[in-house]
Amino acid sequence: MNANCTTMIPLSTSKALRISMIYNLTVALIGLPLFTWASWKLWKGTFAKMFHKNIRFIIQMHLFGFILHCCGRIVLHSLDLYNYMLSDPCEMIPNIYRCFIFRLMYNSGMWITTCTAIPLIIERSIATHLRGRYENKYTWLGMLAFLQPCLAAVPLYFAYANLKFDGVFMPYCSIYKPGSPTIANINSVVAIVSQILARGIFGYLFHLNKKYRTIMQNSNLSTRFQLEQNKNSFHCLKIYANTSTIFLVTQIGSFMLLLDASREMYWQNYLALMELNCQFPAYGILTIGLVTYRIAKVRNQIHSNLNAQRNLDGKHAYFLNFNQQIGTEQSKF
Length: 333
Prior knowledge:
It comes from Caenorhabditis brenneri. The chain is mainly α.
Protein backbone atom coordinates (compact mmCIF):
# COMPACT_ATOMS: atom_id res chain seq x y z
CA MET A 1 0.00 0.00 0.00
CA ASN A 2 1.50 3.35 -1.06
CA ALA A 3 1.58 6.52 1.04
CA ASN A 4 -1.38 8.06 -0.83
CA CYS A 5 -3.61 5.07 0.05
CA THR A 6 -2.50 5.23 3.67
CA THR A 7 -3.59 8.87 3.85
CA MET A 8 -6.83 8.60 1.88
CA ILE A 9 -8.34 5.50 3.51
CA PRO A 10 -8.85 7.14 6.95
CA LEU A 11 -10.39 10.20 5.28
CA SER A 12 -12.77 8.33 3.00
CA THR A 13 -13.96 6.00 5.77
CA SER A 14 -14.36 8.62 8.50
CA LYS A 15 -17.99 8.78 9.66
CA ALA A 16 -17.37 12.12 11.38
CA LEU A 17 -16.08 13.72 8.18
CA ARG A 18 -18.93 12.30 6.10
CA ILE A 19 -21.59 13.50 8.56
CA SER A 20 -19.99 16.95 8.69
CA MET A 21 -19.93 17.25 4.88
CA ILE A 22 -23.50 15.92 4.47
CA TYR A 23 -24.77 18.44 7.03
CA ASN A 24 -22.89 21.35 5.47
CA LEU A 25 -23.93 20.33 1.95
CA THR A 26 -27.59 20.26 3.05
CA VAL A 27 -27.39 23.71 4.65
CA ALA A 28 -25.62 25.14 1.57
CA LEU A 29 -28.29 23.68 -0.71
CA ILE A 30 -30.97 25.35 1.43
CA GLY A 31 -29.07 28.62 1.62
CA LEU A 32 -28.28 29.08 -2.08
CA PRO A 33 -31.90 29.61 -3.28
CA LEU A 34 -32.67 31.61 -0.13
CA PHE A 35 -29.81 34.04 -0.75
CA THR A 36 -30.90 34.34 -4.39
CA TRP A 37 -34.45 35.12 -3.26
CA ALA A 38 -33.16 37.70 -0.75
CA SER A 39 -31.18 39.40 -3.56
CA TRP A 40 -34.35 39.64 -5.65
CA LYS A 41 -36.39 41.04 -2.73
CA LEU A 42 -33.64 43.54 -2.00
CA TRP A 43 -34.38 45.30 -5.30
CA LYS A 44 -37.99 44.34 -6.03
CA GLY A 45 -39.52 44.23 -2.55
CA THR A 46 -41.80 47.16 -1.67
CA PHE A 47 -40.42 47.85 1.79
CA ALA A 48 -36.79 47.33 0.72
CA LYS A 49 -37.08 50.44 -1.46
CA MET A 50 -37.20 52.51 1.73
CA PHE A 51 -33.52 51.66 2.22
CA HIS A 52 -31.05 53.94 0.48
CA LYS A 53 -29.55 52.43 -2.67
CA ASN A 54 -26.10 52.55 -1.11
CA ILE A 55 -27.20 50.25 1.71
CA ARG A 56 -28.72 47.90 -0.84
CA PHE A 57 -25.49 47.81 -2.87
CA ILE A 58 -23.52 46.83 0.25
CA ILE A 59 -26.08 44.22 1.31
CA GLN A 60 -26.11 42.84 -2.24
CA MET A 61 -22.36 42.29 -2.07
CA HIS A 62 -22.90 40.63 1.31
CA LEU A 63 -25.46 38.26 -0.24
CA PHE A 64 -23.14 37.65 -3.20
CA GLY A 65 -20.52 36.47 -0.69
CA PHE A 66 -22.97 33.92 0.69
CA ILE A 67 -23.90 32.76 -2.82
CA LEU A 68 -20.23 32.41 -3.81
CA HIS A 69 -19.42 30.50 -0.63
CA CYS A 70 -22.38 28.13 -1.09
CA CYS A 71 -21.51 27.42 -4.74
CA GLY A 72 -17.92 26.50 -3.88
CA ARG A 73 -19.01 24.47 -0.89
CA ILE A 74 -21.69 22.53 -2.79
CA VAL A 75 -19.21 21.47 -5.49
CA LEU A 76 -16.45 20.52 -3.03
CA HIS A 77 -18.63 18.51 -0.67
CA SER A 78 -20.57 16.83 -3.49
CA LEU A 79 -17.40 15.64 -5.23
CA ASP A 80 -15.76 14.53 -1.99
CA LEU A 81 -18.81 12.58 -0.85
CA TYR A 82 -19.15 10.96 -4.26
CA ASN A 83 -15.49 9.89 -4.19
CA TYR A 84 -15.59 8.72 -0.57
CA MET A 85 -18.65 6.52 -1.17
CA LEU A 86 -18.04 5.19 -4.67
CA SER A 87 -14.32 5.42 -5.51
CA ASP A 88 -11.22 3.47 -4.63
CA PRO A 89 -9.35 5.39 -1.88
CA CYS A 90 -6.09 4.95 -3.78
CA GLU A 91 -7.51 6.67 -6.87
CA MET A 92 -9.38 9.59 -5.36
CA ILE A 93 -6.57 12.11 -4.91
CA PRO A 94 -8.22 15.55 -5.37
CA ASN A 95 -7.04 17.58 -8.32
CA ILE A 96 -5.03 20.56 -7.06
CA TYR A 97 -6.60 22.95 -9.60
CA ARG A 98 -10.11 21.86 -8.67
CA CYS A 99 -9.22 22.44 -5.04
CA PHE A 100 -7.80 25.87 -5.78
CA ILE A 101 -10.80 27.15 -7.78
CA PHE A 102 -13.64 25.93 -5.58
CA ARG A 103 -11.87 26.42 -2.27
CA LEU A 104 -11.09 29.97 -3.39
CA MET A 105 -14.81 30.50 -4.03
CA TYR A 106 -15.51 29.00 -0.60
CA ASN A 107 -13.02 31.27 1.19
CA SER A 108 -13.67 34.39 -0.90
CA GLY A 109 -17.38 34.29 -0.14
CA MET A 110 -16.62 33.75 3.53
CA TRP A 111 -14.29 36.76 3.76
CA ILE A 112 -16.56 39.04 1.69
CA THR A 113 -19.37 38.49 4.19
CA THR A 114 -16.94 38.96 7.08
CA CYS A 115 -15.82 42.35 5.71
CA THR A 116 -19.35 43.77 5.28
CA ALA A 117 -19.35 45.68 8.56
CA ILE A 118 -16.65 48.20 7.53
CA PRO A 119 -18.26 49.69 4.37
CA LEU A 120 -21.66 49.57 6.08
CA ILE A 121 -20.37 51.65 9.00
CA ILE A 122 -18.76 54.14 6.60
CA GLU A 123 -22.02 54.49 4.64
CA ARG A 124 -24.15 54.93 7.79
CA SER A 125 -21.68 57.51 9.16
CA ILE A 126 -22.00 59.54 5.97
CA ALA A 127 -25.81 59.20 6.02
CA THR A 128 -25.88 60.48 9.61
CA HIS A 129 -23.58 63.40 8.83
CA LEU A 130 -25.60 64.38 5.74
CA ARG A 131 -29.00 63.94 7.42
CA GLY A 132 -31.70 65.71 5.45
CA ARG A 133 -29.52 65.87 2.32
CA TYR A 134 -28.81 62.18 1.74
CA GLU A 135 -32.21 61.01 0.51
CA ASN A 136 -31.96 59.61 -3.06
CA LYS A 137 -28.59 61.36 -3.46
CA TYR A 138 -24.91 60.40 -3.33
CA THR A 139 -25.66 57.04 -4.97
CA TRP A 140 -22.07 56.99 -6.21
CA LEU A 141 -21.18 56.00 -2.64
CA GLY A 142 -22.63 52.61 -3.54
CA MET A 143 -19.09 51.93 -4.79
CA LEU A 144 -18.31 51.27 -1.12
CA ALA A 145 -19.67 47.78 -1.81
CA PHE A 146 -16.48 47.04 -3.75
CA LEU A 147 -14.53 47.72 -0.57
CA GLN A 148 -15.72 44.32 0.69
CA PRO A 149 -13.88 42.18 -1.91
CA CYS A 150 -10.88 44.53 -1.70
CA LEU A 151 -10.64 44.01 2.06
CA ALA A 152 -11.28 40.28 1.63
CA ALA A 153 -8.34 40.06 -0.78
CA VAL A 154 -5.87 40.89 2.02
CA PRO A 155 -6.37 37.79 4.23
CA LEU A 156 -6.86 35.67 1.10
CA TYR A 157 -3.50 36.81 -0.24
CA PHE A 158 -1.66 35.81 2.93
CA ALA A 159 -3.52 32.49 3.07
CA TYR A 160 -2.71 31.58 -0.55
CA ALA A 161 0.70 33.29 -0.91
CA ASN A 162 2.71 30.09 -0.45
CA LEU A 163 0.39 27.80 -2.41
CA LYS A 164 2.20 25.52 -4.89
CA PHE A 165 0.73 23.50 -7.75
CA ASP A 166 3.58 21.37 -9.06
CA GLY A 167 4.25 18.09 -7.30
CA VAL A 168 1.82 18.78 -4.45
CA PHE A 169 -0.16 15.96 -2.85
CA MET A 170 -3.37 17.43 -1.39
CA PRO A 171 -5.60 14.69 0.05
CA TYR A 172 -8.19 17.25 1.19
CA CYS A 173 -8.95 20.74 -0.13
CA SER A 174 -7.84 22.97 2.74
CA ILE A 175 -5.41 25.87 2.94
CA TYR A 176 -5.02 25.97 6.74
CA LYS A 177 -2.91 23.01 7.78
CA PRO A 178 -2.79 21.56 11.31
CA GLY A 179 0.22 22.78 13.26
CA SER A 180 0.73 25.92 11.08
CA PRO A 181 -1.75 28.42 12.53
CA THR A 182 0.26 31.66 12.40
CA ILE A 183 -1.31 33.26 9.30
CA ALA A 184 -4.78 32.00 10.19
CA ASN A 185 -4.49 33.39 13.72
CA ILE A 186 -3.34 36.79 12.50
CA ASN A 187 -6.25 36.99 10.03
CA SER A 188 -8.64 35.87 12.76
CA VAL A 189 -7.47 38.42 15.34
CA VAL A 190 -7.76 41.28 12.82
CA ALA A 191 -11.28 40.12 11.85
CA ILE A 192 -12.45 39.92 15.48
CA VAL A 193 -11.03 43.33 16.43
CA SER A 194 -12.53 44.96 13.31
CA GLN A 195 -15.94 43.42 14.00
CA ILE A 196 -16.00 44.54 17.64
CA LEU A 197 -14.95 48.09 16.70
CA ALA A 198 -17.59 48.21 13.94
CA ARG A 199 -20.28 47.06 16.38
CA GLY A 200 -19.26 49.78 18.84
CA ILE A 201 -19.42 52.46 16.14
CA PHE A 202 -22.77 51.15 14.93
CA GLY A 203 -24.17 51.44 18.46
CA TYR A 204 -22.93 55.03 18.68
CA LEU A 205 -24.53 55.92 15.32
CA PHE A 206 -27.78 54.23 16.35
CA HIS A 207 -28.11 56.36 19.49
CA LEU A 208 -26.93 59.49 17.64
CA ASN A 209 -29.72 59.10 15.08
CA LYS A 210 -32.27 58.64 17.87
CA LYS A 211 -31.03 61.90 19.39
CA TYR A 212 -31.26 63.77 16.08
CA ARG A 213 -34.76 62.44 15.50
CA THR A 214 -35.86 63.76 18.92
CA ILE A 215 -34.37 67.26 18.64
CA MET A 216 -35.31 67.81 14.96
CA GLN A 217 -39.04 67.08 15.14
CA ASN A 218 -39.82 70.60 13.91
CA SER A 219 -37.53 70.41 10.87
CA ASN A 220 -38.86 70.42 7.31
CA LEU A 221 -40.68 67.42 5.88
CA SER A 222 -37.69 66.17 3.86
CA THR A 223 -35.37 66.16 6.89
CA ARG A 224 -37.92 64.39 9.06
CA PHE A 225 -38.49 61.79 6.36
CA GLN A 226 -34.74 61.17 6.12
CA LEU A 227 -34.45 60.82 9.89
CA GLU A 228 -37.36 58.38 9.92
CA GLN A 229 -35.76 56.42 7.09
CA ASN A 230 -32.46 56.32 9.00
CA LYS A 231 -34.27 55.10 12.10
CA ASN A 232 -35.98 52.27 10.21
CA SER A 233 -32.72 51.32 8.48
CA PHE A 234 -30.84 51.21 11.78
CA HIS A 235 -33.54 49.10 13.44
CA CYS A 236 -33.27 46.51 10.66
CA LEU A 237 -29.47 46.66 10.42
CA LYS A 238 -29.18 46.30 14.19
CA ILE A 239 -30.20 42.66 13.74
CA TYR A 240 -27.29 42.14 11.35
CA ALA A 241 -24.86 44.02 13.63
CA ASN A 242 -25.73 41.85 16.63
CA THR A 243 -25.86 38.47 14.87
CA SER A 244 -22.68 39.08 12.87
CA THR A 245 -20.73 40.12 15.96
CA ILE A 246 -21.90 37.14 18.02
CA PHE A 247 -21.37 34.69 15.17
CA LEU A 248 -17.96 35.92 14.00
CA VAL A 249 -16.48 36.22 17.48
CA THR A 250 -17.73 32.72 18.31
CA GLN A 251 -16.80 31.14 14.97
CA ILE A 252 -13.37 32.73 14.65
CA GLY A 253 -12.57 32.14 18.33
CA SER A 254 -13.46 28.45 17.92
CA PHE A 255 -11.41 28.32 14.73
CA MET A 256 -8.33 29.58 16.56
CA LEU A 257 -8.81 27.05 19.39
CA LEU A 258 -9.28 24.27 16.85
CA LEU A 259 -6.07 25.16 15.07
CA ASP A 260 -4.19 25.16 18.35
CA ALA A 261 -5.60 21.75 19.35
CA SER A 262 -5.13 20.20 15.90
CA ARG A 263 -1.68 18.74 16.70
CA GLU A 264 -3.28 16.26 19.09
CA MET A 265 -6.17 15.22 16.82
CA TYR A 266 -6.60 12.73 14.00
CA TRP A 267 -6.56 14.65 10.74
CA GLN A 268 -9.98 13.40 9.63
CA ASN A 269 -11.54 14.57 12.92
CA TYR A 270 -9.82 17.93 12.61
CA LEU A 271 -11.23 18.37 9.09
CA ALA A 272 -14.72 17.34 10.22
CA LEU A 273 -14.69 19.91 13.03
CA MET A 274 -13.16 22.55 10.77
CA GLU A 275 -15.98 22.20 8.24
CA LEU A 276 -18.57 22.08 11.00
CA ASN A 277 -17.15 25.24 12.55
CA CYS A 278 -17.51 27.19 9.30
CA GLN A 279 -21.27 27.78 9.59
CA PHE A 280 -21.57 30.76 7.23
CA PRO A 281 -24.58 29.41 5.26
CA ALA A 282 -26.47 28.72 8.52
CA TYR A 283 -25.51 32.17 9.83
CA GLY A 284 -26.78 33.75 6.59
CA ILE A 285 -30.07 31.85 6.77
CA LEU A 286 -30.60 32.91 10.39
CA THR A 287 -29.77 36.55 9.61
CA ILE A 288 -32.20 36.69 6.67
CA GLY A 289 -34.94 35.19 8.83
CA LEU A 290 -34.37 37.70 11.66
CA VAL A 291 -34.10 40.72 9.33
CA THR A 292 -37.24 39.66 7.44
CA TYR A 293 -39.08 39.43 10.76
CA ARG A 294 -37.78 42.86 11.79
CA ILE A 295 -38.82 44.42 8.47
CA ALA A 296 -42.34 43.01 8.86
CA LYS A 297 -42.48 44.36 12.43
CA VAL A 298 -41.29 47.84 11.39
CA ARG A 299 -43.76 47.88 8.48
CA ASN A 300 -46.66 46.99 10.78
CA GLN A 301 -45.54 49.64 13.26
CA ILE A 302 -45.48 52.29 10.52
CA HIS A 303 -49.02 51.38 9.44
CA SER A 304 -50.21 51.44 13.07
CA ASN A 305 -48.66 54.85 13.70
CA LEU A 306 -50.16 56.30 10.53
CA ASN A 307 -53.62 55.00 11.41
CA ALA A 308 -53.33 56.28 14.98
CA GLN A 309 -52.22 59.73 13.83
CA ARG A 310 -54.93 59.91 11.17
CA ASN A 311 -57.64 59.07 13.69
CA LEU A 312 -56.28 61.27 16.47
CA ASP A 313 -58.14 64.45 15.53
CA GLY A 314 -60.23 63.09 12.70
CA LYS A 315 -59.43 62.60 9.07
CA HIS A 316 -60.05 66.25 8.18
CA ALA A 317 -57.47 67.55 10.66
CA TYR A 318 -54.91 64.97 9.52
CA PHE A 319 -55.18 65.84 5.83
CA LEU A 320 -55.30 69.57 6.60
CA ASN A 321 -52.01 69.27 8.50
CA PHE A 322 -50.53 67.18 5.71
CA ASN A 323 -51.54 69.74 3.05
CA GLN A 324 -50.01 72.53 5.14
CA GLN A 325 -46.72 70.62 5.26
CA ILE A 326 -46.76 70.17 1.48
CA GLY A 327 -47.54 73.84 0.99
CA THR A 328 -44.61 74.83 3.21
CA GLU A 329 -42.23 72.63 1.19
CA GLN A 330 -43.51 73.94 -2.17
CA SER A 331 -43.12 77.58 -1.11
CA LYS A 332 -39.34 77.02 -0.88
CA PHE A 333 -38.99 76.37 -4.61
